[in-house]
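This week, think about what follows.
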Amino acid sequence: MIDRDLPLKKEIANNIKTLMKLNGIKNQIKLSEISGISKSTLSDYLRLKTLINPGNVEKLASAFNVDKSDIDPSFASPNRSNQTVTIAAHIDEDLTEEEMEEVRKYIEFIKSQRE
């Protein structure tokens, strides 16, 4: 059977992984504690087993302090691109903690410009 949601599941999983890196969250247990979503449910999202539900998109967005569309692109308005996660997905893993903090500050600056 073909999983028609697979491309969306992959994008959501990549977004969650990227946001975990950006926020210094090293494992699913810590993300579970912060978000209130069970570790097994988070594992299912990251292993592409299930599609995230809107309530958990909200919980993760709140935990990461980002828009829901930064988790699940289907929440994006037609005029807004998913710039934060797109930029973050291209960050090399060899950044120092200070460099990563500068990236976080820049992302917050960009977000503040839309208010």
Q: What stands out?
A: The longest helix spans residues 6-22. The mean pLDDT is 83. Residues 6-112 form a domain with the 434 Repressor (Amino-terminal Domain) fold (CATH 1.10.260.40).
